[in-house]
């Protein structure tokens, strides 16, 4: 197929006039430059994700400033891509709704400044959702005219998950330097006695246990997506079993529901594809997981202790902060308040108790009242249904299915995970998620591929015009 496409491209180039060939060469050079710039931006996202920890301060890097420079680079990249007509601007309904959440946060901040006579410093939550919007746009535009970037992104995510898995194993076995690294990245907790509940919560190379479990689950989905076109190899099955065990080592109880939904779905898909030959692998994977838990012993104390103190802390101390604000200011909240993400401000003690809210939905309620909460819930619902519809579309490219499945996993992680965590207020940890979701949108059909096989919408075939598609079926 690739040979036929290459032959078709050469024949097309030969039939062109000299000026047309020159224009085509200039466009190809422009696309290569934009791909390099886009990959540089993604590299900055990875660096920011790891430096948004005490390590960043230790090496003298201000991650906040790094993110601001990155935002400038993103905006510039998108503007150049649009001016060069390299890709259309596609904004699904969920992305538009997310933008409206950020806009309402800003409106609420202005109203709070007037009504409460408070002066709010500009902080990360003031532009966190806008930064995710820009990441989504670059991801969708970059993979539109350069679909091969998806292969690089897949290798990056799976590679990070595998490297993190081996570091997590060392942490779980009690290897001192690996545990010291985790405690440095997380800073406020000891992974060998989390919240005084014992156990070892292996975080791998990431600065958060949710990140560790999330990228393991995304990596599993990307590997398993090969089932759309063929059976899995032994190495792929072994990697999936490994990453599944690593997710349990992180002991993120708030993710167990999403992990169960995704893994059961993938096992069913695996059995349907492999038929009877799947059973030995299913039995082997189950036994490996059972042995891990049994041999892990007291290392799994956090997960199986039955202690509900961390959840009780949320319901008794953290979440009442939002309900107090809602009772006083149901329509506008108090505006964007850094105090709810762990940054002390002069209003600590007035509208909050000085603690992280640990609930993305209640953060929205506190920031912008009922309208913000309603918009956020609508965003999650639209995102989940859109990503599922994207996964069900007909496409001949397995890599397209890998990213559609990634979009489903990420939207489920956010939708359910926000009940226990802020998630969207941490720019550094959220940007790569939205690049991956953007990359799930259909690409420009290549020469020799029909629009139907490419999965691309009729108005996004050649990319000569920048159009805005506000539709939830992207």
Q: What percent of the residues sit in helical stretches (DSSP H or I)?
A: 55-70%
Radius of gyration: 23 Å
Provide the structure class: mainly alpha
Report the biggest beta sheet as strand number plus sense, adding barrel if it closes.
2 strands, parallel
**How many β-strands, per DSSP?**
2
Structure write-up:
The longest helix is centred in the first third of the chain and has 34 residues, at 18-51. α2 packs antiparallel against α4 (63-83) and α4 crosses α6. The chain contains 19 helices and two strands. The chain is mainly α and 474 residues long. The protein has a two-stranded parallel ribbon.
Jot down its keywords:
about 475 residues; mainly alpha; two-stranded parallel ribbon; 19 helices; 2 strands; about 0% strand; globular; disordered N terminus; disordered C terminus
Topology (SSEs and partners):
Elements: H1 2-15, H2 18-51, H3 54-58, H4 63-83, E1 89-90, H5 93-115, H6 128-145, H7 149-172, H8 176-186, H9 209-224, H10 234-250, H11 256-274, H12 279-296, H13 301-304, H14 309-318, H15 320-328, H16 360-392, H17 398-417, H18 427-438, H19 451-454, E2 468-469
Parallel strand pairs: 1-2
């Amino acid at each position: 197929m690739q040979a036929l496409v290459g032959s078709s491209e050469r024949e097309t180039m030969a039939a062109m006039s000299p000026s047309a060939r020159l224009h085509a060469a200039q466009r190809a050079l422009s696309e290569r430059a934009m791909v390099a710039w886009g990959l540089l931006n993604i590299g900055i996202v990875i660096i920011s994700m790891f430096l948004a920890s005490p390590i960043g301060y230790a090496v003298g890097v201000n991650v906040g400033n790094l993110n601001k420079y990155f935002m400038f680079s993103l905006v510039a990249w998108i503007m150049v891509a649009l001016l060069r007509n390299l890709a259309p601007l596609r904004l699904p309904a969920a992305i538009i709704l997310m933008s409206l959440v950020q806009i309402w946060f800003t409106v609420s901040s202005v109203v709070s400044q007037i009504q409460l006579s408070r002066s709010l410093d500009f902080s990360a939550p003031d532009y966190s959702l806008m930064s995710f919007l820009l990441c989504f746009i670059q991801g969708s535009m970059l993979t539109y005219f350069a679909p091969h970037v998806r292969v690089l992104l897949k290798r990056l995510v799976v590679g990070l998950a595998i490297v993190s898995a081996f570091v997590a194993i060392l942490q779980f076995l009690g290897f001192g330097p690996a545990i010291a690294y985790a405690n440095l990245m997380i800073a406020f907790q000891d992974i060998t006695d989390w919240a005084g509940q014992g156990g070892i919560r292996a975080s791998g190379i990431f600065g958060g246990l949710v990140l560790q479990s999330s990228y393991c689950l995304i990596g599993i989905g990307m590997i398993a997506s090969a089932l759309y076109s063929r059976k899995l190899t032994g190495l792929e099955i072994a990697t999936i079993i490994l990453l599944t065990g690593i997710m349990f080592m992180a002991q993120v109880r708030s993710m167990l529901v999403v992990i169960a939904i995704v893994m059961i779905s993938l096992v069913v898909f695996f059995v349907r594809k492999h038929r009877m030959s799947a059973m030995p692998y299913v039995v082997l994977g189950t036994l490996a997981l059972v042995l891990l838990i049994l041999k892990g012993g007291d290392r799994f104390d956090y997960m199986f202790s039955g202690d509900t103190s961390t959840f009780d802390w949320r319901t008794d101390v953290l979440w009442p902060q939002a309900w107090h604000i809602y009772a006083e200011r149901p329509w506008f909240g108090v505006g964007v308040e850094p105090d709810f993400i762990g940054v002390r401000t002069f209003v600590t003690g007035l509208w909050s108790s000085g603690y992280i809210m640990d609930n993305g939905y209640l953060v929205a309620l506190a920031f912008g009242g009922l309208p913000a909460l309603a918009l956020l819930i609508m965003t999650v619902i639209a995102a989940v249904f859109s990503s599922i519809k994207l996964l069900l579309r007909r496409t001949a490219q397995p890599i397209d299915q890998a990213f559609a499945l990634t979009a489903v996993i990420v939207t489920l992680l956010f939708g359910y995970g926000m009940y226990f965590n802020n998630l969207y207020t941490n720019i550094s940890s959220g940007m790569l998620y939205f690049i991956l979701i953007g990359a799930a949108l259909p690409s420009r059909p290549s020469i020799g591929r029909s629009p139907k096989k490419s999965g691309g919408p009729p108005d996004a075939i050649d990319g000569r015009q920048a159009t805005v598609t506000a539709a939830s079926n992207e």
